[in-house]
Design goal:
This protein is an all-alpha fold. It contains ten helices and no strands.
Length: about 230
C-alpha cells in the first residue's frame, strides 16, 4: 500500500499536476513575500540593538527572544481578532486572503530574524570593535560595515526564517481559512487532504516540503563554511 501511495505521489509531481503546483506556487508566493518584509524590518532592528547600548536594549532583546517561541495558533488567533469584521483593523477586509497569511508569517518570522541578527552582529561587533573605533567611523558606517561583514550569516538567518514560515500551519489556517484555489498552501493542504483520506496528494506535498527543507539545509551549511 505504501509503495502504491508513493508511486501515485511521484506521478502527481512528475506529471506537473495542476492542483499540486497551484498550491506550491501560492505557498512560495506567501512565504517569500513574508520573508522579504520581515527581513527588511528585522535585520536593521537586530543590528541596531547589537550596536547601540541603551536601557531598553535588554528588554527588547528579551521580548524578541520570548516571541520566538510564540505558538503559531496564538499568533493566528491574535491576528484574527484584529482583522475580523469586529476587529480594529476589520476595515482592511483581509481576513481569509493571502494578505492575512503573509501578515501572519511576517509576524512569525520577525522575532526570529531580530534575535538571530542581534547575536550575529553582537559577536562581529566584539571582534571588530577596536578596529572600527580606530577608523573613526560614524555609527551609521559601523552599522553598514557590520551588516556587510555578517552578510553570509544573515543570509543563513533569512533562510532559517523561510524554513520556519514554510512549515507553519496553525496561524495561516486560522487567518487564511484554507480556501481551495485561493488560500490553500502546502501545510494546510496536507492537513486537509489527510483528514479527508486523499493521502496521495498529501504525500506529494510532503515530499515537496522535504525537498525545500533539504535545499535550505544545504545552502545554510554552504554559507556557514563561507562565513
Amino acid at each position: 500500500m505504501l509503495i502504491n501511495i508513493l508511486e501515485t505521489a511521484f506521478n502527481l509531481i512528475i506529471s506537473l499536476n495542476k492542483d499540486l503546483f497551484e498550491i506550491i506556487s501560492l505557498s512560495l508566493k506567501v512565504t517569500i513575500s513574508a520573508l522579504i518584509i520581515a527581513v527588511s524590518i528585522s535585520i536593521p532592528i537586530g543590528a541596531f540593538l547589537a550596536l547601540y547600548k541603551n536601557k531598553f536594549q535588554s528588554f527588547l532583546v528579551l521580548i524578541s527572544n520570548t516571541l520566538m517561541g510564540m505558538p503559531p495558533v496564538v499568533l493566528g488567533l491574535l491576528i484574527y481578532t484584529l482583522v475580523s469584521k469586529k476587529g480594529i483593523f476589520g476595515f482592511l477586509d483581509i481576513l481569509y486572503t493571502p494578505s492575512a497569511m503573509i501578515l501572519a508569517q511576517t509576524l512569525l518570522i520577525i522575532p526570529i530574524v531580530i534575535s538571530l541578527t542581534y547575536e550575529e552582529i553582537y559577536k562581529k561587533n566584539k571582534e571588530y570593535n577596536l578596529l572600527l573605533i580606530s577608523l573613526n567611523l560614524s555609527n551609521f558606517s559601523k552599522l553598514k560595515t557590520l551588516i556587510y561583514e555578517c552578510r553570509y550569516a544573515l543570509l543563513t538567518v533569512a533562510l532559517t526564517g523561510f524554513g520556519r514560515a514554510s512549515a507553519e500551519v496553525g496561524a495561516v489556517m486560522i487567518v487564511g481559512g484554507n480556501i481551495n484555489h485561493f488560500t490553500r498552501v502546502m501545510t494546510t493542504a496536507i492537513a486537509f487532504e489527510t483528514s479527508k483520506g486523499s493521502i496521495e496528494l498529501a504525500v506529494a506535498l510532503g515530499l515537496i516540503l522535504l525537498l525545500i527543507s533539504l535545499i535550505i539545509t544545504i545552502i545554510i551549511k554552504s554559507l556557514r563554511k563561507i562565513s
